[in-house]
Design brief:
Number of strands: 14
Order of helices and strands: EEEEEEHHHEHEHEEEEHEE
Shape: globular
Low-confidence stretches: 298-302
Mean pLDDT: 92
Radius of gyration: 20 Å
């Protein structure tokens, strides 16, 4: 018997406060969840204060984007996105169940495939010695699993879960994969970017995934439901894109709401923008809630 679909309601509020008026600004949002064969967006509402005219479009990665400018001075900006999403449960390990599908590292790609996947194979720019240390670290998982692609990836996913410490506030947007490997601490963004880096060094196409995770605050997940979440998707031969969540040591299923993908974090960040004029001090507050709802209580578009 198939498991019933799960409906999740997400509210994501971002508030920026400034110590002096911002004269003009431009903003780009990735807040609208995706719709595909695993996930269906039932309703979405976006509210911005101060009011702004919003342009909606799909970016080059297929993400739903909203862009807006504010041309009058302001000292506080609030962006609230509300979504209801229906997720179809499935066995995330089904692709690995076949005994005939056992690819090995290194992977071989046709020239046309490599051309299309190029952006997901390029590693982050770091000093040569750091890249070499990351590569040797990645190869250690290959050696431990006799070159088996899937076992290597499962091992790496669990390594980041079991032996890296989840410490909010211990890193920043400028923290590199090498620094995370050295300190063995960080948050979901750091573990995802390290996984992306290691996979690419092994010739495995990898992309950064951003969205939300529902746990009900009762599970063992390190990233609780009241936060945005990040994980990884890897492109596997004859399988396609498949998710890995190193923060929680699992493969994403019906608890992960997918919003955006990119080569790196900056391609998929939920909110971003540019301020024009004199420099200002910024205070940022983010409030995210994810709750499970039934079909009767699920609201329609506001």
């Amino acid at each position: 018997m198939n498991n019933p679909a799960r409906r999740l309601r997400v509210r994501h509020t971002t508030t920026y406060r400034y110590d002096r008026p911002v004269q003009r600004s431009a903003h780009l949002l990735h807040l609208r969840p995706l719709t595909d064969n695993r996930q269906c967006l039932l309703d979405f509402d976006l509210h911005i204060t101060p009011a702004a005219e919003v342009m909606a479009f799909d970016d080059v990665f297929g993400n739903a984007c909203h862009a807006f400018d504010i041309d009058t001075p302001y000292t506080e900006l609030t962006v609230t996105a509300r979504s209801t999403v229906e997720l179809t449960p499935r066995d995330p390990f089904a692709f690995a169940a076949s005994h005939t599908y056992r690819p090995e590292i290194p992977l071989l790609w046709q020239p046309r495939e490599r051309q299309m996947l190029d952006g997901y194979l390029r590693s982050v720019e770091l000093p040569d010695n750091q890249i070499d240390d990351l590569f040797q670290y990645a190869k250690s998982f290959v050696s431990a699993n006799n070159g088996d692609l899937l076992e290597t990836l499962f091992h790496l996913n669990l390594e980041l879960f079991n032996n890296y410490e989840y410490v909010p506030g211990s890193t920043s947007n400028t923290t590199t994969p090498f620094e995370v490997m050295q300190s063995k601490r960080g948050v979901c963004q750091d573990f995802a970017q390290l996984f992306v880096c290691l996979a690419r060094l092994l010739g495995i196409p990898a992309r950064y995934a951003c969205g939300y995770i529902f746990t009900g605050n009762t599970g063992v997940e390190r990233a609780q439901s009241d936060a945005s979440h990040a994980w990884v998707e890897l492109y596997l031969p004859k399988v396609g894109w498949r998710g890995f969540d190193p923060t929680n040591g699992c493969l994403p299923d019906a608890g992960h709401v997918r919003v955006s993908y990119g080569r790196f974090y900056r391609d998929a960040t939920p909110t971003g923008g540019t301020l024009y004029g004199n420099a200002v001090q910024t205070a940022l507050d983010i409030d995210v809630t994810v709750e499970e709802v039934d079909a009767q209580s699920s609201s329609t578009a506001a």
